[in-house]
Description:
The protein is of the alpha/beta class. It has helices at 2-28, 57-73, 86-96, 110-120, 134-143, 156-163, 166-173, 184-192, 219-226, 243-256, 272-281, 308-313, 333-337, 352-360, 370-382, 384-400, 404-421, and strands at residues 49-53, 79-83, 101-104, 122-128, 147-152, 178-181, 200-202, 232-238, 261-266, 286-288, 299-301, 317-320, 342-344, 364-366. The protein has 17 helices and 14 strands.
Amino acid sequence: MRHALYTTLLRLAVPVLLTRLVRRARASGVPADRWREWIGLGEPEPPGAIWLHAASVGEVEAALPLARALQEKHPGRHLLVTTTTPEGAMRVTAALGDAVSHRFLPLDLPGAVRRFLHRARPAVAVMFETELWPNLYRGCERAGVPLLLASARMSPRSSRRYRRLQPLVAETLARLGVLLVQDESAARAFLDLGAPAERLRVGGNLKFDRELPPGHEQGAAFRQEFAGAAPVWVAVSTREGEDAAVLSIHRLLRAEFPDAVLVWVPRHRERFEPAFEAARAAGFRTGRRSDGPTGPVDVLIGDSIGEVGLYLGAGDAAFVGGSLVPLGGQNVLEPAALGLPVVTGPSTEHFESVVARMEAVGALHRAQDAHGVACELVRLLKSPDARRAMGEAGRGVVDSGRGAVGEAVSAIEHCLERGRAN
């Protein structure tokens, strides 16, 4: 009954969901003949693929080291990667090219799932982080496709939301063959939601295993184009509602460092132009990465996908957004891996265990508001020693957290062996 109610409500929402997906696809240049993938009508795939589903850019970044490890260990095995967003698709193409197939994940409707699985014919399915789809999971079970959830996490907010649907969530989790959670906190949260204890184990966070962000080696040369010797701070993954805060931080910084430059990298493509217009309206000389070399600027908008490494490589310190609004924060490991000191706002629940770990060793500063972020950035820009100490501590946290890829590969290989035995 609850599964039927979920499906009925989802069917009612399909016109709105498809309208949003098409609008986003058009803005990103996704060809119209690929829109049908959202109803499960993609091109057929070679049978027996390892299927990885990563919702958007952040999940794709977590999946990349696993994808590369699977390519190395199983070079003859087809790899299918699905995403929900066009931005995620662009990152898959940029990072893996023609070595994998990419499709958009169908809407979680029984018919769309059935058509997708009939065309994809995977040997095993691997979901990432919090991708829990009742009809997709049921479809995999009925089609005999072993299902894993890797690098699974559960924030307190998500846990509260899922608890309202606990019977449906427990039924969905019971269809998993293996549940690899990031840490003990996530293990407790999934067990509380009804995950089978015998299929759950702590497998680590795949984001620790990712390679250094591509392009970071060119960061210093890139910096010379727009900043010269001026101090540079990078605001990455900022979200809607943080524009005014980012600009106020920059004004406060420039009171201490009149030539300081902000490299501003909004989380989503649709935020690039509003960020540019906001910076220009605030009176800053503003450039875009997409415009090519701009000469000296006060603010440079990083309006490209897959170049976070280049932007971070150009900076002295990083602010990670999604944290000055109540959205739970974004990934703090990318700047840490490059040895940058990291500053966030107070909202970090989606990455709480990592943030707390970095904060404990002095690799990260969690400020309470925009003024606190500015004060910490001023301190860091004044002290190369402080920046170096925080950066080294951050690298240490990243290095100590590696190993999730090996756990995931082992679990996938076990599923493949079990499938051959059946």
